[in-house]
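user: Please review this fold.
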Amino acid sequence: MKGRIHSTESFGTVDGPGVRFVIFMQGCPLRCKYCHNPDSWEMGSGTEKSAEELLEMFQENRFYYRNGGITVTGGEPLMQIDFLIEFFEKAKEMSIHTCLDTSGITYNSNNGEYLKKLDRLMDSTDLVMLDIKHIDPDAHILLTAQSNKNILAFAKYLDKRQTPVWVRHVVIPGITDNESDLYELGRFIGTLSNIKALDILPYHTMGAAKYKNMGLENPLEGVPDLSKEDAVKAKKFILDGIRDSRNEIQI
């Protein structure tokens, strides 16, 4: 079996614990306005590679990954779940720490065959980095062209399995920095018992050049980078929501 790969990064330091070999999968059903890799959307493109080929690439620098491992991101990696199962199972045979960076958009609680595959994948997944784009349903559709229903259901699924999760949230000035939305996001996160970390990712304009080179309209043209100060404020609102939610659960 071969997966369609957008690109790889040999020394990732922000994609899970330690230094990591990062694999960007090709294909994504979301159309996030802040996406830095719009060239990863199309399913049919990318470079085909087998699990063995990718693991050989990992082995070339394994010494540097001794406190890290492999992270598969995207695009949306769950679009290629069959390949992921094979790849992660082979990685675990080699005692490699596996991390899946996903939005969970493909989650479908009504598809028994899909759930069997997802269970099998999670059995060989050490950590999920879950990208929650927006907590408000309508705002999520405006931001990504998709509902957040499956994403939030996926978060509950991971909680039920007690799969370790790092929540990631991109904060965009004027779009995802609303205090009440951040607080509500925190309240949702507070209902989950498997959260190990919360990463606030400040929006930046580094991907603007790619839109220009691809001849695409940049939907966030003119939106400034988020300042470090505003990122700290955003995280505080989320943490307030988490605290209040957990206090209510304890009561």
Q: What stands out?
A: Residues 228-250 form the longest helix (23 residues).
